[in-house]
Design brief:
By secondary structure, the protein is an alpha/beta fold. It folds into 2 domains: 4-178, Spore Coat Polysaccharide Biosynthesis Protein SpsA, Chain A (Alpha-Beta Complex); 181-268. The protein has helices spanning 16-25, 43-49, 71-81, 98-107, 180-184, 186-191, 194-199, 206-234, 243-268; strands at 4-12, 29-36, 53-56, 86-89, 94-96, 115-118, 120-124, 127-129, 139-144, 150-151, 159-160, 167-169, 174-178. The strands form 3 sheets. Strands 3-2-1-4-9-6-12 form a 7-stranded mixed β-sheet, with helices on both faces. The chain has a 4-stranded mixed β-sheet with strand order 5-13-7-8. A two-stranded antiparallel ribbon has the order 10-11. Helix 1 packs parallel to helix 2 (43-49) and helix 8 (206-234) packs antiparallel against helix 9. The relative contact order is 0.12.
């Protein structure tokens, strides 16, 4: 079958455990560009098997200990290195569904939107999670570089683009894979991003805190609780996101509000 004229953009570092699954799902794409952080395992050998083009992660986006300082910057780096206008953003421990691949194949052939959002599907161990409070979990993962879209945040990064542009929505998901231990470590994994979230609000005022952030995050908390109760009423527990993660999302929002409050009032005192 004819290759899809688009580039897959991926970050790697010692990613041999999951990389084959990711690359197998995108083998119909004309180009796969890997931005590697100096892997010492079999990551680069696996990449070579699939004909990937490998570039080295720019040191300005990394900390001295080789950890990532600016993931958004690294994503922009690999997008800039791509040869196709159409790019798909995929992590090395993820994959795309067959249906999504065919939706992308159709999208590049038509004169439609330049930016598409993609729904998420979680897998935990050998379980496919069909129902979750954060579904469909859309992210803008496929776009044309002519749109001017750029990643703008160092963590929890997302693309910024001209909002007057029309966007599309795919029906089929990209897959995110977790191990069972990741569920137990959810709070630790998520709470470490609170400090970065606070940096997004350098001039946070008391007015903004009480009139916007408290109402907004409260709505998120209520939505998580309501959706979780709904899912467990209508569907089997095995098909639903574990409660430890759902309650972890609530705890994250509460902790973020508390830290924002501390920042506001310490600044004013």
């Amino acid at each position: 079958m004819e290759k899809i004229p688009a580039s897959v953009c991926m970050l790697t570092f010692n990613s041999q455990k999951d990389l084959r699954r990711a690359l197998e799902s995108v083998r119909d794409f004309d180009e796969i560009v890997i931005n590697d952080g100096g892997s010492t395992d079999d990551t680069l050998q696996i990449a070579a098997e699939y004909g990937c083009r490998v570039i080295a992660q720019d040191a300005k986006f990394k900390n001295p200990d080789n950890t990532l300082k600016d993931i958004g910057g690294l994503r922009n780096q690999v997008v800039d290195a791509s040869t196709h206008d159409w790019v798909l953003i995929l992590d090395s421990d993820e994959s795309i569904s067959d249906g999504l691949r065919e939706e992308i194949r159709a999208a590049v052939k038509m004169q439609g939107p330049l930016i598409y959002r993609v729904p998420m599907r979680m897998h935990i161990g050998d379980r496919e999670i069909l129902y979750s409070s954060n579904y469909p979990g859309y992210q803008y993962r496929f776009f044309n570089r002519k749109s001017g879209a750029r990643f703008i945040r160092p963590v929890h990064n997302k693309i910024a683009f001209d909002t007057t542009l029309s966007t599309g929505t795919f029906k089929n998901p990209w897959n995110v894979y977790w191990e069972t231990k990741d569920v137990d470590e959810y709070d630790t994994r998520s709470f470490k991003y609170i400090a970065e979230e606070l940096k997004s609000f350098p001039n946070l005022s008391v007015w903004d805190y009480f009139t916007y952030h408290i109402p907004w995050h409260s709505r998120v908390i209520i939505a998580v609780i309501v959706k979780t109760l709904r899912d467990r009423t209508l569907h089997s527990f095995g098909a639903c996101m574990p409660l430890k993660i759902e309650f972890g999302r609530v705890r994250f929002q509460v902790r973020l509000l508390m830290e924002m409050g501390k920042k506001v009032f310490q600044t004013k005192l």
